[in-house]
Amino acid sequence: MSDNLxxxxxxxxxxxxxxxxxxxxxxPIMEVLKQKPTGWKVHTLATHLNELGFIPALDPVPEKELxxxxxxxxxxxxxxxxxxxxxxxxxxxxMEIELMCGRYHGSTHAIDHxxxxxxxxxxxxxxxxxxxxxxxxLNEFWTRYKKFVGGSETDMDRNRALSLFELPLDASPEEIRxxxxxxxxxxxxxxxxxxxxxxxxxxxxxxxxxx
Length: 211
Fold this sequence. Notes:
Blueprint: H1 2-20, H2 26-35, H3 42-51, H4 62-84, E1 89-91, E2 98-100, H5 116-122, H6 131-149, H7 158-164, H8 173-187, H9 196-209
Antiparallel strand pairs: 1-2
Helix pairs in contact: 2-4, 3-4, 7-9, 8-9
Keywords: Chaperone
Pfam families: DnaJ, DNAJ_related
InterPro entries: DnaJ-related_N, DnaJ_domain, J_dom_sf
């Protein structure tokens, strides 16, 4: 009975952990795909993100370094695919990554939530790291991205951040994450009606709320 409770408790903690993990590579990858929607493979995308300064050293063992880099990129791609759907379609294949903008009438594109490859890369536990290590790594990514998008240091606090997100003070982590994605997509500078200043402010708010 005790073992079952421990297992159930571990699963609940894991689910909460995964639900709150927003891979900051989503937005750098989207910017890259907006500039060049086709012709990407995981390894060429990894090289480009590394040149932009978004991927630090992940592991001293070369084989693990390669695996973790691949995992983080695939995880971000699958999260971004769901974020962009159904207005846009992001094809996620290791050797053929393509962003298809606009709705495709008559298209059979749809997210397969039963896809074992997708399930594997969405599950943070497969990254082979403790929760603390993953959070530390993603905080490093977020710091790099915040410098990349710019923005000034402000007296942003949780109350102001929630107000910008148009959420109540008791908003759940899941509600905050969903609102962040919705607002980020709306104001992202690469969108036709995007606004760089508004996007930077939202980034600062998200940085406070995700802490």
